[in-house]
Specification:
Structural class: alpha+beta
Number of domains: 1
Shape: globular
């Protein structure tokens, strides 16, 4: 069973806050089951985008799975175009942005 999106996001933001990583909600989605995308800003013009996998959303331990949407960090404009397309398919998506120059952002 998956934790509701808004609860997972609140916990994730708290984890980022404890590590002194700025984390903001860019787009608010469905409280219960909106897909979550996380933009990890590693420089002023490079962003990693992590999103839900095509298959199962949870691993064997019940944790959410995230996978990269591009093979490398890309410019913000490319991220914006991708997320606009995703929102066209599913208007319930969440988008978070984390500033983490080390690219960790606590996602496996």
């Amino acid at each position: 069973m998956s934790v509701k999106s808004d609860i997972w996001i609140a916990a994730y933001r708290k984890r980022c806050d404890l590590a002194a990583l700025p984390c903001v909600i860019v787009r608010k989605g469905a409280l219960d089951a909106g897909s979550i995308y996380i933009c990890i800003r590693i420089s002023d013009d490079e962003v990693w985008l992590m999103g839900p996998p095509a298959g199962p959303l949870l691993d064997d331990l019940g944790d959410r799975i995230f996978e990269p949407r591009f093979e490398a960090a890309v410019p913000q404009g490319q991220i914006d175009e991708y997320l606009a397309r995703q929102a066209g398919y599913d208007p319930d998506i969440w988008v978070l942005e984390v500033e983490d120059r080390d690219g960790r952002a606590f996602l496996r």
